[in-house]
Specification:
The structure is a single chain. This protein is α/β, with parallel strands linked by helices. The chain has 15 helices and seven strands. The chain starts with a helix and ends in a 35-residue tail after the last helix.
């Protein structure tokens, strides 16, 4: 009887299962939901072949945002009853950092073809062949010497036939790794050309290193839309209240006992700089430390041992502040209106139209003489 009860009792999850369960948990916090709606609206409202930039500090939740949008776009054909087996609603690829230090377009196009599950990636029709049936060398074997142009053509053809709503390029800041003598605009022109020829909206997701891409040329700026996923700021009372709620929600999801994290909220903010992704990774490390047998619960000591160092946090914060400063319009709007001949004060312009003329000098006070040039030397008699 005792053995039967032992067999029927549930088994306690192991450390690996606890970690997997907590890692899989994602939270729909307010800033993430706002960015999700902005990104969905940007994709739906973008002209075919447009570019959408999604940027924010490291650990803000950009990957979670991308996964949620991919899930939404993948469900649209099912709700619409689309039964086309060749259609792929969304394509997602990560821009890999090249070993040589320069971004490899050949590797990018190869990975893009494999992400679309394109058959025979290693043997594609050579583009530009006038007579495929009569050509003996109409096949190109993709190897170490294959030109990027041939792979680019194969990727464009696949995107035309698959017709994705959006192509997500994660870690897109790696596109800025260019060889000596090349311009940064050349990198983005490749993406723009592919988006234009395939009519697929390309969503570039990355850190604030993406910001220089936005204004490389007027043509690129016209076809780009920005979506910002910021951090929670300590000088905003609403942000701090939301951060505390996020911390409380994470504590409820922890599968083991822990100290009241709310009593350490300022320390938790200090070592996460208000980024939810950094906070979650920190709690995962703390959970792993406890699950390995170092202690029985997550304590302040556990948090201090698994937190990012002060130097790491200062580096993340410095990059974040620099990116936020580039996004702030500040004096930029005043400079733009000055270049356009507009006055920043809408009361004087009526909201539109050219700037009003400068106001006249104020009347002097009573008893104060008007400024004028006084006569010098003896008076000269007038000539009759």
């Amino acid at each position: 009887m005792a053995s039967s009860n032992a067999r029927s009792s549930p088994t306690r999850p192991g450390p690996g299962e606890l970690l997997t369960s907590f890692r899989a948990y994602t939270m729909a916090h307010p800033l993430l939901m706002v960015a999700k709606e902005d990104l969905l609206q940007a994709i739906n409202g973008a002209e075919p072949g447009s570019l959408v930039f999604v940027f924010g500090p490291t650990g803000a939740g950009k990957t979670t945002l991308r996964l949620k949008l991919e899930q939404l776009l993948a469900e649209e054909p099912l709700r619409a009853g689309n039964s086309d087996p060749g259609h792929i609603p969304v394509v997602s690829i990560e821009a890999m950092a090249a070993i040589s230090g320069n971004f490899s377009w050949r590797d990018y196009f190869t990975r893009l073809l494999r992400c679309m599950e394109e058959p025979l990636v290693n043997r594609k029709l050579r583009c530009g062949t006038p007579d495929l049936e009569g050509s003996r060398n109409r096949m190109v074997v993709i190897g170490s010497r294959t030109s990027g142009f041939e792979l680019q053509y194969a990727a464009e053809q696949a995107l035309r036939f698959r017709r994705p709503r959006a192509v997500f390029v994660d870690e897109a800041q790696h596109l800025s790794r260019v060889a000596s003598g090349r311009r940064l605009s050349d990198q983005l022109n490749v993406i723009k050309s592919i988006a234009n020829r395939t009519a697929a909206v390309h969503v570039l997701v990355g850190t604030y290193e993406l910001l220089p891409f936005r204004n490389l040329s007027g043509q690129l700026s016209r076809r780009c839309t920005d979506v910002h996923l910021p951090r929670y700021k300590s000088d905003d009372a609403a942000d701090i209240a939301t951060f505390k709620n996020i911390l409380l929600t994470f504590q409820k999801q922890l599968p083991i006992a822990s100290d009241d994290l709310m009593t350490h909220w300022d320390f938790m903010y200090e070592r996460s700089i208000g980024c939810v992704g950094v906070l979650k990774d920190w709690l995962v490390r703390a959970l792993a430390s406890v699950a390995s047998g170092a202690s029985t619960s997550i304590t302040r000591r556990t948090l201090e041992r698994t937190a990012l160092s002060v130097g790491q946090c200062e580096k993340i914060f410095a990059e974040t502040i620099e990116g936020e400063a580039q996004l702030a319009e500040g004096e930029g709007r005043s400079r733009l209106r000055s270049l356009l001949g507009l006055n920043l004060d809408s009361k004087q312009t009526g909201g539109d139209g050219p700037a009003a003329s400068a106001p006249l000098t104020k009347a002097p006070k009573i008893g104060q003489r008007r400024p004028k040039r006084d006569a010098i030397g003896p008076a000269v008699p007038a000539i009759a």
